[in-house]
Amino acid sequence: MEECMEAKNDSTRLVLSYIKALDSQNYDTALEYLNEKIQVKGPGGETFSNPREFLDMLRQYHVKYDMKKVFSDGEDIGLVYDLATPLATLTMFSWYQVKSGKIAFIQTIFDPRPLTLPASTA
Q1: Beta pairing, strands 34-41 & 102-110
Q2: 3-state secondary structure the chain
Q3: CA distance readout (Å), 82 to 15, 17, 56, 58
Q4: Does residue 117 have a pLDDT over 90?
Q5: Is residue 11 part of a domain?
Q6: pLDDT of residue 14
Q7: What percent of the chain has pLDDT over 90?
Q8: How many structural domains is the chain composed of?
Q9: Is 39 inside a domain boundary?
């Protein structure tokens, strides 16, 4: 993740600092980066508009981030990463929008099949 931490703008630095807090399971710090009226859209249609409820959901998974690519277009930040969960490692894409110095929008997409397929024995 360190290579991706060389952010090109303040919005990118903010989002990557948020990811670093999540990766360290420091949810109180992660909360500081989220707008109180955040809109979060998950891959299964789930939505959150309360930052504490969203972080409470994330807290259950004990995940680790392996950043692959960061895209930046002003206040729009895109991240490609592998997310290691207790069940599988998932390749994910998340789109973040930063407004007034806080993350105001997150949408994440990924292929959930690795969560349902039997583990390989190879």
Answers
A1: parallel
A2: CCHHHCCCCHHHHHHHHHHHHHHCCCHHHHHCCEEEEEEEECCCCCEECCHHHHHHHHHCCCCEEEEEEEEEECCEEEEEEEEECCCCEEEEEEEEEEECCEEEEEEEEECCHHHHCCCCCC
A3: 16, 17, 21, 15
A4: no
A5: yes
A6: 98
A7: 76
A8: 1
A9: yes
Position 121 in a domain: no
| 18 contacts 24 by C-beta, under 8 angstroms | no
Q: What is the largest CA-CA distance in the chain?
A: 49
CATH value at residue 37: 3.10.450.50
Q: Are 78 and 70 a contacting pair, CB within 8 Å? A: yes
In a domain, 117, yes or no: no
pLDDT in tens, 30-42: 999 999 999 999 9
Owner of token pair 């909360």: 31
**Phi, psi (rounded to 5 degrees) for 43:** -70, -20
